[in-house]
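seq/struct pair 1
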Amino acid sequence: MSIDDKLSKVKYNCDNISHLTTNEEKCKNCKTKACTYICPANVWQWNENSNSMHINFENCLECGACRIACEKQCIEWKYPSGNKGVIFKQG
């Protein structure tokens, strides 16, 4: 089973407000943009045309890999509000 097949089975209760933010100026100066390839859910996407980071926060698995991989330490991550975000336990 591919990662895309596995991710399609993850359940979310999406919030309207992102729980992820970043410092755009630091992102512009980042050489590796590691967050864009370390994230298993493709949350982080660098747009070369606008020279900015697009955050697909509604896909976040809340694993924290992006914060660990960010060479500029510019990702601010907090838990989604209330009962929002990824649902790990079905019931």
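seq/struct pair 2
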Amino acid sequence: MKKITFILFALIAGTAFGQTATSATATAEIITALKIAKDTDLNLGTIAPKSDNTSTFIIKTDGSVDVASTATDMDATGRSAASFTITGEDGETFALTVPASVTLSGGSGADMTLTLSHNLAATSNAFTSGSATLNVGGSLALASNQGSGTYAGTINVSVDYE
């Protein structure tokens, strides 16, 4: 009886502690890295403020001047909206970070605020054929008798997959 109990115990113990080999597969899908490249700077051309009043100058995202502008358009040479090419994985969505405004400084007068506008949504933009174009325009607020000179500022744009 002791032999049968020992054999039975050995069979049960072997079954209870036995393990089978198994495996897992490791996979990774790599998509195209996001890239953003500036194609064109935002250039408002040469403009003149109203001498006795504040005024605005508006450049649309297609580079044209908005008729609501109250500053005098002096010279359109080189005028353009900013343009960026964004590349990534076809069909994936991305989000943009574009500042609401940028300060322009460097002339002989007070700094000016350029309120920015752009042609893409802040989120849920989808790549078509692996690229998208971001155009940036804006509305420049000029003080009455704004000092002359060249004013400049930097527009920092970023893009991330969603």
